[in-house]
Specification:
The protein has about 280 residues and is an alpha+beta fold. Helix content is about 20%, strand content about 40%. The longest helix has about 35 residues. The N and C termini lie far apart (about 155 Å). Bound molecules: 2-acetamido-2-deoxy-beta-D-glucopyranose (2 copies). One 2-acetamido-2-deoxy-beta-D-glucopyranose binds next to loops. One of its GO terms (biological process) is T cell receptor signaling pathway.
């Protein structure tokens, strides 16, 4: 029997695998990203293959989208809370009763906007380590938009639309009754301390035949929208002070007109009389 170089290499590799094999493991988890609804509790799955105990290992959960990445650490049979990203304080845990069978899944409670990111599950024994990364997407549908009337602005009526509690950040559009987009001011977007988005936008509308206007806030990634319709009575577009001013001007004009005609008539009449005399 001929032994080739390749066979030799394989044998050596197999031997190495066997001798160091007692401590070797793979870290596995879901290949699809996890979509989490804001406010829910979620599990980020992660486990060892083969299913050896992780009780004597160091288990790190990191959020790679943060500079200071630590979400959770288990080491020397204890939970280490130093250097934990403050957003995760009091919201993370492992299933400690599951560690002996290689289950190092992380439980994250009350999901919030800042939780979106890439999470690495890193497991280290004394002689080996491996990791797995899973992506978490956070979905939050915000509040029904609140529309308020701001009064007369630049020859139209000023309206303001506001909605909060979104993730990811939504778009906002103003529509007239025919569904035509109205051009509005720039969208103002703010992020609160939990990572949810609040948006608001001003618009100036002109009188139409129906005076129905809609503010729609939508997020295409999560395929959600919320909208509010407002009806403006047409008297609003017809401001009383202006009408009064117009009437007063008309009256003044009429009085001045009559006065002038009278004066002209009198002068002519006197002149006429004078010539006759
Ligand atoms: C570990 O895996 C083996 C085979 O995959 C299975 O038979 C066994 O029940 C598992 N052990 C635990 C503790 O889950
Ligand atoms: C790990 O434990 C959690 C909680 O009991 C369970 O939901 C999950 O399915 C387990 N994962 C594996 C891979 O066994």
């Amino acid at each position: 029997m001929k032994v080739t170089q390749l066979d030799c290499l394989c044998l050596i590799l197999l031997h190495l695998l066997h001798t160091s094999g007692s401590e070797r493991f793979e870290v596995l988890g879901p290949t699809d990203s996890i979509v989490a609804v804001a406010g829910d509790d979620i599990i980020l799955p992660c486990y060892l293959k083969p299913n050896i105990s992780a009780e004597d290992m160091t288990v790190d959960w990191l959020n790679l989208d943060f500079l200071d990445e630590r979400v959770f650490r288990y080491q020397n049979h204890r939970i280490i809370r130093d250097d934990q990203i403050p957003y995760y304080r009091g919201r993370t845990s492992l299933f400690e009763e599951e560690l002996w069978r290689g289950n190092t899944s992380l439980k994250l409670t009350r999901v919030q906007g800042t939780d979106e990111g890439h999470y690495k599950c890193l497991i280290q024994s004394k002689s080996w380590y491996d990791d797995f990364t899973v992506q978490v997407l956070v979905k939050a549908v915000g509040s029904k938009p609140v529309v308020s009337i701001e009064g007369h602005r630049e020859g139209g009526m000023g309206l303001l639309c506001e909605s909060e509690g979104w993730h990811p950040d939504p778009e906002l559009v103003w529509l007239d009754s025919k569904g035509v987009h109205l051009s509005a001011r720039t969208l103002e977007t703010h992020r609160d301390f939990k990572g949810f988005y609040r948006v608001k936008q001003h618009v100036i509308v002109q009188e139409t035949d129906t005076n129905h206007f809609t503010c729609r806030v939508q997020q295409k990634r999560i395929n959600e929208k919320m909208e509010t319709e407002i009806h403006l009575p047409s008297e609003l577009f017809d401001p009383t002070p202006w009408r009064m001013a117009f009437i007063v001007l008309c009256c003044l004009g009429a009085i001045i007109g009559i006065g002038l005609s009278l004066a002209i008539y009198c002068i002519c009449y006197k002149k006429g009389n004078g010539e006759i005399i």
